[in-house]
Amino acid sequence: EKGGWSSFMAKEISEEPEAVAKTLLGRLVDHKVRLPELDSLGEGTLENIDRIVIVACGTAAYAGMLGKYAIEKWSRIPVDVELAHEFRYRDPILTERTLVVSISQSGETMDTLLAVRHALEQGAKTLSICNTQGATIPRDSHAVLYTHAGPEVAVASTKAFVAQITALYLLGLRIGEARGTLSAEQIAENAAELLAIPEKIDEVLVASQSIGQLAHWMTDTQSVLFLGRNVGFPVALEGALKLKELAYIHAEGFAAGELKHGPIALIEPGQVVFVIVPSPRDPNSLHPKVVSNIQEIRARGARVIAIAEKGDAAVLPFADEVIPIPLAGSLFEPLLAVVPLHIFGMELAAAKGLDVDQPRNLAKSVTVE
Ligand code: F6R
């Protein structure tokens, strides 16, 4: 039931804090990662794998890209992320030391299921990250790590996305723990970051209340671009996908560093560009690079909407609008930065009078190839 909400999507976005909290529940205890459900992968699997392949479609694949950043950083195992439908048909290299992690909210996506079955035939280990108890993909996999976002009714995925990222980060910490690539202190630090996320998303929900107005003046907009770097890149892709599917607007997400390699030619006066700005405290020092990207597009007339850390004074002179997010470690910023983009997609669709929960031509679970 929708309760008092105008749409299931509005309700589900409001449940993003809870989706993260419930996915963490009972899994971070005494600074240790408890994921007994991984035991069915077989003893020694986490220590012995030499490669991870994440397979998924759509939004779930963007969660997978974020999983790659975290898992590689924490466990030093190479991670590839592939769209399930591309993976399946190119005879991918898989061995018994490959862990194939599928991500699917519904657990029924045919493309993802076929990728998992192919991995099983090749002798790889398979782990399903899934939001639906007893669905086909988890049943066919060696192990399942459930996300606990609760049932998602709106066709566009929102709360399941943040829950998927949470589950992937737990997996990354667990593998880092098993392989000794993370110290107990590092695990405790990252666990604390994760546990703080639900409250921070609550703050973002409050700070995002002005997005409705922003959407209102954009109902005639023909094209919106999204720029992000590092973990901001999958967030940009997610923001663009939501606009396409909900508001039927041409939208594209780019890696900000790619701008000068082509996409900057698209910038003309009035072009709306969302920019996901890394924290000025970012250890990779990406902040000045993204700020200079903003200056470049602003000089060509772009309307810049920046999603930036609260108190980031460097973006203020160059952005038409700033949506502030609370301070968090770099890897954790996507869990906050994506929330205003989910809201924006929904608000723009609503402002255009479209059905937010049931966009045209789409189904909640895609059970055909
Ligand atoms: C986008 C969206 C889709 C799904 C994709 C995978 O908002 O909902 O891109 O993420 O179809 O679906 P699942 O996760 O059920 O496999």
Automatic annotation (TrEMBL):
Its EC number is 2.6.1.16. It is an enzyme of class 2 (transferase). The keyword Repeat applies. Keywords: Aminotransferase, Cytoplasm, Glutamine amidotransferase, Repeat, Transferase. It catalyses: D-fructose 6-phosphate + L-glutamine = D-glucosamine 6-phosphate + L-glutamate. This is Glutamine--fructose-6-phosphate aminotransferase [isomerizing]. It comes from Conyzicola lurida. GO terms for molecular function: carbohydrate derivative binding; glutamine-fructose-6-phosphate transaminase (isomerizing) activity. The chain holds residues 248 to 616 of 616 of the full protein. Residues 42-181, 214-359 form the SIS domain.
